[in-house]
């Protein structure tokens, strides 16, 4: 049974009506389902159970402490991309030896912090970064465990802004230069080579790019061992897509079927970095209609959530289904769901067939668990929404709605 469904015409999250939660906690509001989160992380753990595998949830998708802590209790590690994310992961109780650290621009302070915490490994994205990490490690009297992020030049067939494994992208080290870079790494005093890393993009809905990238990764692994360099970890990154509209992305089991038969004799631990496919469909954003407005050419539904609360439609033209919190059988309109932000690009849906919403109605913006709150901002001095975690018939506020005082914290006249 899905975690979000209608019962007697009312939208429920697990056993709670969305309307009742919003009456108490206000809007806009992010609501997550614990059951959906647990199901998703277990789907990965079970699919890969036959091989030593660390599922390092990519917390950039949603870094709420309650979610991190829940996933950690399910055995997950974390993929972080900043000192701030590392801090969050540690606050949530994630063991340091289950944390991997990627990103093209790690600062010396962030590197030192991660070394002191003793994380599992750094996923290194350039020659310069490798040198910096070695220097910082030597200064601290230690060695940094690293994987080099190898850019295989595979088209992930997703939005260009979130394609990361092509030649023209800023990520990773080109595969043709990677063996030489590993050889250089093996001579650096502060570096201990432990793995190979790859991540080709996000919201992948076909298996073929995973297969192409994985073929290249295995070929590279062979080349590296022939050059005398052994690794203990193969990090395959994240990127598995979810259903926003009608997509039918591969499942963790499909990924496992592709990968496991070919790694079983390599003597490596697998690392996976799923983000969106864990949290995306475990969360919704609820917005209340403030006004209706019709011009000569457009119908607008003006809600209380905008691009500052959910950026994906504005940034990528992304589609999120809209569901009425109270089911209607009445008229529909074709129009835009827009927010209060002073930008024409502030919309959650454009030219969309939707119920003829009236002021006061609640709309659930679906599939908003990933890259929703984590990309929210205070633009137009708007406090960010509260976040709610539903567990069966009860819920907890896992992040308070921001106040006006929060907006000016740290500022001085
Ligand atoms: C290095 C790395 N790992 C993991 C992820 C998580 O990706 P996704 O949310 O698509 O699973 C990303 C984001 O694309 C990433 O950059
Ligand atoms: N923010 C993107 C995904 C970014 C992936 C990060 N590497 C989205 O909402 O789809």
TrEMBL record:
InterPro entries: Ala_racemase/Decarboxylase_C (IPR009006), DAP_deCOOHase_LysA (IPR002986), De-COase2_C (IPR022643), De-COase2_N (IPR022644), De-COase2_pyr-phos_BS (IPR022653), Orn/DAP/Arg_de-COase (IPR000183), PLP-binding_barrel (IPR029066). Its EC number is 4.1.1.20. Pathway: Amino-acid biosynthesis; L-lysine biosynthesis via DAP pathway; L-lysine from DL-2,6-diaminopimelate: step 1/1. Its cofactor is pyridoxal 5'-phosphate. Substrate binds at residues 276, 312, 316, 343, 371. Homodimer. Residues 30-369 form the Orn/DAP/Arg decarboxylase 2 C-terminal domain. Keywords: Amino-acid biosynthesis, Decarboxylase, Lyase, Lysine biosynthesis, Pyridoxal phosphate. Specifically catalyzes the decarboxylation of meso-diaminopimelate (meso-DAP) to L-lysine. The modification N6-(pyridoxal phosphate)lysine is found at residue 60. It comes from Leptospirillum ferrodiazotrophum. It is an enzyme of class 4 (lyase). The active site is at residue 342. NCBIfam families: lysA (TIGR01048). Belongs to the Orn/Lys/Arg decarboxylase class-II family. LysA subfamily. One of its GO terms (biological process) is lysine biosynthetic process via diaminopimelate. This is Diaminopimelate decarboxylase. PROSITE patterns: ODR_DC_2_1. It catalyses: meso-2,6-diaminopimelate + H(+) = L-lysine + CO2. One of its GO terms (molecular function) is pyridoxal phosphate binding.
């Amino acid at each position: 049974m899905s975690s979000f469904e209608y019962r007697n015409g009312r939208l429920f999250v697990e056993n709670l009506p969305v309307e009742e939660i919003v009456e108490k906690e206000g809007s806009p509001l992010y609501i997550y389902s614990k059951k959906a989160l647990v199901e998703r992380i277990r789907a990965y753990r079970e699919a890969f159970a036959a091989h030593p595998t660390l599922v390092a949830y990519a917390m950039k998708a949603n870094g709420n402490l309650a979610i991190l802590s829940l996933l950690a209790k399910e055995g997950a590690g974390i993929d972080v991309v900043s000192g701030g994310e590392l801090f969050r992961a540690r606050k949530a109780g994630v063991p340091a030896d289950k944390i991997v650290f990627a990103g093209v621009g790690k600062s010396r302070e962030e590197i030192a912090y991660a070394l002191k915490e003793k994380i599992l490994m750094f996923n290194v994205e350039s020659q310069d970064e490798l040198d910096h990490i070695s220097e910082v490690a030597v200064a601290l009297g230690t060695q940094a465990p690293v994987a080099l992020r190898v850019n295989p030049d595979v088209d992930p067939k997703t939005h260009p802004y979130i394609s990361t494994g092509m030649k023209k992208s800023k990520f990773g080290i080109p595969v043709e230069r990677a063996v030489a870079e590993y050889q250089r790494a093996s001579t650096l005093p502060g570096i201990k080579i432990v793995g190979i890393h790859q991540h080709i993009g996000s919201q992948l809905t076909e298996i073929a790019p995973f297969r192409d990238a994985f073929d290249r990764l295995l070929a590279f692994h062979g080349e590296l061992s022939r050059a005398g360099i052994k690794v203990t970890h193969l990090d395959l990154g994240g990127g598995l897509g979810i259903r926003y509209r009608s997509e039918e992305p591969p499942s963790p089991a499909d990924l496992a079927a592709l990968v496991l038969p070919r790694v079983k004799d390599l003597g490596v631990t697998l690392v996976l970095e799923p983000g969106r496919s864990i949290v995306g469909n475990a969360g919704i954003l609820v917005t209340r209609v403030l006004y209706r407005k019709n011009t000569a050419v457009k119908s607008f539904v003006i809600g209380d959530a905008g691009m500052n609360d959910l950026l994906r439609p504005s940034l990528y033209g992304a589609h999120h289904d809209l569901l009425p919190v109270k089911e209607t059988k009445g008229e529909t309109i074709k129009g835009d769901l827009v927010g209060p932000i002073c930008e024409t690009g502030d919309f959650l849906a454009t030219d969309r067939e939707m119920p003829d919403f009236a002021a006061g109605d609640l709309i659930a913006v679906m599939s908003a668990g990933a890259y929703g709150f984590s990309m929210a901002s205070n633009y137009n001095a708007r406090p960010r929404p509260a976040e709610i975690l539903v567990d069966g018939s009860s819920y907890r506020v896992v992040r308070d709605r921001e106040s006006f005082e929060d907006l000016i914290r740290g500022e001085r006249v």
